[in-house]
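Why does residue order matter? Because the sequence determines the fold. Keep that principle in mind as you read this record.
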Amino acid sequence: MAILTLEGVRFRAGGAEIIRPCDLALAEGEYLAIVGPSGCGKSTLLRLVAGLERATGGTITLDGRAVSGPGLHVPPEARGIGMVFQSYALWPHMDVAGNVAYGLRRRGLARADRAARVAEALETVGLTGFGARRIPSLSGGQRQRVALARCLAMRPRLLLLDEPLANLDTHLREAMIDEFRRLHRTTGTTIVHVTHDQAEAMVLADRIAVMGQGGFLQVDTPATLWREPVSAEVARFVGKGQVLPVEVVTPGALAEVLVFGRPARMRAPAGITRGPALATVRAEDILREPGGLPARILDRQDTGAAVVLTVEVVDSPGTILRLRQTGPVPGALGEVIGIGFRDGWLIRDGGAEGRGTHSVRAEARVSAGH
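Structure:
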């Protein structure tokens, strides 16, 4: 049975629909990340699950019990959910143990039981011996661990994380990502994690929900989102996928297509038919190919692990592509090279249906250089 279920959940405020009908089923022990552009409704959806906002439609069910629905709104403290905010929301006048024990004390646990739970939670997050420390004396990463320990001490069935790593520097964020992975493995807690950092989501989550304009665009595993986005919008957002116009010559699981008049093979979902379509191509799947599609080098960046070339397709002025290659990569600015495509995914979102090739190409030119 799903530990969390959303059925047609929506939220309106000030006459605007902030969250349009959302459906989701989250299995026990699953780690779900929610990503999307600023203002898409990620944090609002989390607040609806927590009970901090009241849904204006649909049903939210936790452990088989409805907590939100028509005429029903179970308050946050009665939902058995833990939540870690971006600000951590720690009490500066209390020591670490006092912060971790705060919810337990309000719940009325005996002193000995509180002490045992606090010690257990601090050990889980790697802060054994920190109970007497004051909050202002802690680093950002340590404060984050205290906030997590406070939630874990309550033994929640569901843990909600709202941009928990946003205030940390790169080094601390990487360390906390490792900590979250360890924490999830050792506790088995079901987690919903809102983040603006796609790399963070890819590393941590079993599934990722991509949001746009208040709704779910795609909910899938990280690998599926990366290789098989369901729409051009998802393709552009996840890892800045490049969306190109293609002509499907022979449909199939590995379709034969023309890319700017050059033959290539690309993976395709069921239902793809002959004619104009859109495809998403990753930078690492565009290769230098002698005699291939002519492209002029506009920029090159050496990242150490790879070289990223930015090129413009000679036969399609304005179409900008990125190539990411490892090893020595010859080519000077302004030089025309040949390129080819070793992989790609045809998008079945109706983007090319009912439109001429010209309109598809116009859209692709904007998105490819995103």
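DSSP finds nine helices and 20 strands in the chain.
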